[in-house]
From TrEMBL:
<dbReference type="GO" id="GO:0015628">
    <property type="term" value="P:protein secretion by the type II secretion system"/>
</dbReference>
<dbReference type="InterPro" id="IPR010994">
    <property type="entry name" value="RuvA_2-like"/>
</dbReference>
<dbReference type="InterPro" id="IPR051675">
    <property type="entry name" value="Endo/Exo/Phosphatase_dom_1"/>
</dbReference>
<dbReference type="InterPro" id="IPR003583">
    <property type="entry name" value="Hlx-hairpin-Hlx_DNA-bd_motif"/>
</dbReference>
<dbReference type="GO" id="GO:0015627">
    <property type="term" value="C:type II protein secretion system complex"/>
</dbReference>
<dbReference type="GO" id="GO:0003677">
    <property type="term" value="F:DNA binding"/>
</dbReference>
<feature type="domain" description="Helix-hairpin-helix DNA-binding motif class 1">
    <location>
        <begin position="55"/>
        <end position="74"/>
    </location>
</feature>
<dbReference type="InterPro" id="IPR004509">
    <property type="entry name" value="Competence_ComEA_HhH"/>
</dbReference>
<protein>
    <submittedName>
        <fullName>Helix-hairpin-helix domain-containing protein</fullName>
    </submittedName>
</protein>
<dbReference type="GO" id="GO:0006281">
    <property type="term" value="P:DNA repair"/>
</dbReference>
<dbReference type="Pfam" id="PF12836">
    <property type="entry name" value="HHH_3"/>
</dbReference>
<feature type="domain" description="Helix-hairpin-helix DNA-binding motif class 1">
    <location>
        <begin position="26"/>
        <end position="45"/>
    </location>
</feature>
Length: 81
């Protein structure tokens, strides 16, 4: 089952984007330079803050502007949950 999930996420990144306001830990971890800990930090941050733009991702501890820039084409910041 994990293999199918990873294949699905890989394909979705090729053809789609990750919504940083709504993605789960697995989807966030598929972003280049974001592992499980940083994905958890994103989820924790957005529990009290809504990302109004992709640039605000750099406000999360451990994520810098370079990470945001190299992933910009694969990210969106749609409405919060």
């Amino acid at each position: 089952m994990k293999i199918l999930t990873m294949i699905f996420l890989g394909v979705s990144l090729l053809f789609g984007t990750v919504d940083i306001n709504n993605a789960d830990q697995t989807e966030l971890s598929s972003i280049n330079g974001i592992g499980a800990k940083k994905a958890d930090a994103i989820i924790k941050y957005r529990s009290t803050n809504c990302f109004k733009s992709i640039d605000e991702l750099a406000n999360v501890k451990g994520i810098g502007a370079k990470t945001v820039e190299k992933n910009r084409a694969n990210l969106t910041a749609n409405g919060c949950k």
